[in-house]
């Protein structure tokens, strides 16, 4: 969406598809899109898969998005093209979330959750190692309207199957409220 702060990404082109492993096609697209959108060159072998986001069946436009994490090294500089991207910032997870909560940087739910995960790590290399070894998390949101906004339930949440944010038990959800987002995972 215009005005959102997001990671580089886009559509997997026909020549990037891999019939045996759709993650491979997404990885190829991630490398290409990062170069096209931000001018950064990444090595596929340096990226780890950390999550997959699939929009709800009720969404008018469906997406199946893979998130990869890499460590940008060397002297590469982000190139703002004024079309795909109009600005960029290198920020810490803390400052990205603070800017979001102040209304200065709008983050889409997948970006918000990913940045929240990164809070647990002091250095990019630590996040790369830990998240690269973790089980892949697939997000298939069930959106439940609430009087205060919405609760997006993800697989693993006690209320996911029934679409019930009030269900007792494990939590894996994002609250999208008037005062902002709040991510919970137990």
Q: Keywords, please?
A:
186 residues, alpha/beta, 4-stranded antiparallel β-sheet, 3-stranded mixed β-sheet, 25% helix, globular
Explain how this protein is built:
By secondary structure, the protein is of the alpha/beta class. It contains 4 helices and 9 strands. The chain has helices at 22-38, 93-101, 109-118, 124-133, and strands spanning 4-5, 48-54, 64-69, 106-107, 137-139, 142-146, 149-153, 172-177, 180-185. A 4-stranded antiparallel beta sheet has the order 6-7-8-9, covered by helices on one side. β8 and β9 form a beta hairpin. α2 (93-101) crosses α3 (109-118). The protein is globular and about 50 Å long. The model has no long low-confidence stretch (mean pLDDT 92).
What are the SSEs and their pairings?
Layout: E1 4-5, H1 22-38, E2 48-54, E3 64-69, H2 93-101, E4 106-107, H3 109-118, H4 124-133, E5 137-139, E6 142-146, E7 149-153, E8 172-177, E9 180-185
Parallel strand pairs: 1-4, 2-5
Antiparallel strand pairs: 2-3, 6-7, 7-8, 8-9
Helix pairs in contact: 2-3
């Amino acid at each position: 969406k215009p005005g959102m702060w997001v990671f580089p990404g886009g559509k997997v082109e026909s020549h990037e598809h891999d019939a045996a492993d759709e993650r491979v096609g997404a990885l190829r697209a991630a490398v290409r899109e990062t170069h096209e959108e931000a001018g950064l060159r990444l090595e596929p072998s340096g990226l780890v898969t950390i999550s997959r986001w699939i929009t709800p069946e009720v969404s008018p436009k469906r997406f199946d998005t893979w998130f990869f994490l890499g460590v940008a090294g060397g002297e590469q500089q982000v190139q703002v093209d004024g079309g795909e991207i109009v600005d960029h910032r290198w920020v810490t997870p803390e400052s990205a979330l603070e800017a979001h909560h102040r209304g200065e940087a709008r983050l889409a739910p997948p970006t918000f959750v990913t940045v929240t995960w990164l809070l647990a790590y002091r250095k990019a290399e630590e996040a790369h190692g830990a998240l690269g070894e973790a089980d892949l998390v697939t997000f298939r949101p069930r959106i439940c309207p609430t009087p205060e906004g919405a609760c997006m339930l993800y697989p693993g949440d006690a209320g996911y199957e029934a679409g019930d944010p009030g269900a007792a038990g494990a939590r894996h959800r994002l609250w999208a409220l008037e005062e902002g987002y709040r991510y919970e995972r137990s």
